[in-house]
Specification:
Membrane integrity-associated transporter subunit PqiC; 9-stranded mixed sheet; alpha/beta; 9 strands; Rossmann fold; ABC_trans_aux; signal
């Protein structure tokens, strides 16, 4: 019995060691445009921002690198600060709040009386290396009237930004620039539609 217990303890320690070795050395976040960059009209509407949908290749905390195919790989020992959909959701909420143009912006479960939902799908959020190295961010957005479920408007937002290198820092810098462009366009679009 003691040998069986020891075997379980050793197996548990080996599993923990394996987990520790896969821990990233660095966590990366996304910047958010400031209020001055996001000014628009003011409305009394409130907007809910659910977590974006994404395929498994982007529904992860790993930072994606895409070669021709497309073939997805990920930067070793580096990760987003949370899963990418949650990081993008937080960026969208902050950006909409920074506009000062909405009465309220919230996440599911926060108890706001919602007028619209900003539903999003992450289509691309990666460093592309199938030619010129570039960050590609593409998000499909839908504004849905929360009272009747009708889509008010939908649009695809996309930005490509050249990367100054293929190391993780340069890739994340380029992804931040591309994401900022997408978020600025999306927040301006939301304010004109709600």
């Amino acid at each position: 019995m003691a040998d069986l217990t020891r075997a379980f303890v050793v197996a548990g320690l080996l599993a923990l060691t394996g987990c520790a070795s896969s821990t990233p050395d660095a966590l990366y976040g996304l910047t958010t445009p400031t209020g001055e960059q996001l000014r628009g009209r003011t409305t009394s509407r409130q907007v809910l921002v659910p977590e974006p949908r994404a395929l498994q290749s982007l529904d992860t905390s790993s930072i994606a690198v895409v070669d021709a195919g497309p073939v997805y790989t990920y930067f070793p020992k580096a990760a987003w600060t949370d899963t990418l959909p949650k990081v993008v959701q937080a960026k969208l909420v902050q950006a909409l709040e920074n506009t000062g143009g909405l009465r309220g912006v919230g996440l599911p479960g926060e108890g706001l009386l919602i007028d619209y939902q900003l539903q999003t799908d992450l289509r691309a959020f990666e460093l592309r290396i199938d030619g010129a190295e570039r960050a590609v961010v593409e998000v499909m957005a839908r504004l849905v009237n929360d009272r009747n479920g009708r889509t008010r408007a939908s649009r695809v937002f996309r930005a490509e930004v050249p990367a100054s290198g293929t190391d993780v820092r340069k890739a994340v810098e380029a992804m931040n620039v591309a994401a900022d462009r997408v978020v600025r366009e999306m927040t301006a679009w939301v304010l004109t539609k709600v």
